[in-house]
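Co-fold these.
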Amino acid sequence: MLDPKILRENPDKIRKMLNDRNVDFPLDELIKLDKSRRDLIIKTDELRKKRNEISIEIAKRKKANQDTTSLIEQMQETSQILTDLEIEQTQTESNYTKLALTIPNLVDESVPIGKDDTVNREIKKWGKIPQFDFKVKDHINISQSLDLVDLERAAKVSGARFYYLKNDLVKLNQALIQYALDFLSDKNYTPVQTPYLINHSSMEGAIIAQDFEDVIYKIEGDDLYLIGTSEHAVASMHSDEILEGKILPLRYAGLSSCFRKEAGAHGRDQKGIFRVHQFEKVEQFIFSRPEESRKEHEQMLSNVEEFYQKLEMPYRIMILSSGDLGKISAKTYDLEAWMAGQNSYREIVSCSNCLDFQARRLKIRFRDRTNDQPQYLHTLNSTLVATTRTIVALMENFQTKDGHISIPKVLQKYLNKTII
RNA sequence: GCGGGGGUCGCCUAGCCUGGUAGGGCGUGGGAUUGCUAAUCCCAUGUCCGUAAGGACCCGUGGGUUCGAAUCCCACUCCCCGCGCCA
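Predicted complex below.
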């Protein structure tokens, strides 16, 4: 949700954003709805004022045993007009909110403008791309020969894009989670394992409606949705709250399984565990003062870099262009890890600043002193590790000549071995 | 799942029976005063509209009855206690 003040005072800023994002949106209709919504508030407020005045007068007269017939007649009349107006107001309000909830976030000035991912800008490369003196295998190959993944039976039991992890890959999955939690705990993040099912209003606060269809599973018969990431559950954790300014920034290390429909991804990354419906993720989530969110964003990214450097993982950092940017994000960095089996960089981390966009939808505010006007805070989120994708990169980059996987130093103590 | 009790403006609580401007305490912020970090007193402390003056809304949520609902009625929801089931 955008600040309605921008809508009123600077609609061109929004028009530019829609253009930059290459999004169709009936902005004029939203402006009109905002206007009529406010007009109706003024009208109904006036009527309620009148009603309150008469009501007080009736109470007074009743106490004094005076006649109230004409006043009650007036009340009846006023109430009738008010009821009609209220119906109109509720309708307008709901139309406004419905539409306002679908508008995407503003785009940060530092974001490259362009229609799709071809315009994403690389800003950094780290690490040496591994060279092999043998025929490189992809992760599917490796996991099959080491009996680490069973895709066929998963397909039988659950369908495409599901998997059974087996043997040491189960432990590697856990090792990544544990390493990530330790890593963030050391940086004073509060670990939080979230509910995996959340209700509609929480989900709608965290994402935009279209995404419900594309990525979110719904539980039949209940007002519950499977989270696509712990971000959804952590963001809504403080909904409808006014936080004390002094506790900011709030930094959470969210842990959860993640569930995604991956609608529209048919044909892409069809095989293996790169693109799946379920995986585990440790996520950085920050509630920040507005003036500090850009700094926090950079800090999150540098945490991510440190994490993957310690994992000895070659990567590059991209800034997503306006056309590729998620609707709720104002600016997103992706970390793309080198994947030897595919001979290319692939996305494994997404690091976003949502500014006050989610906070407005979820009504999360803060203030420094009791009598201050509460203001919306900023929310930021970034993958630290999404297990399956990082496992793919580890398998492919750390493969050995004899078909095994060597384990990066930082993970060895969690796995209790140096090779799989 | 069944039975019982509950949800009041950050926290605690009054008001509900008997409908008529939601009151108090604590905490917090600001101020006054006192030669101490204490005490006392005053003001403020939910949301929305409005530049403001001001006004409207707010008693878990949504309906209903009524001129008027925190209060009466219905449904839902969450919490607590007991029973049942259960990793």
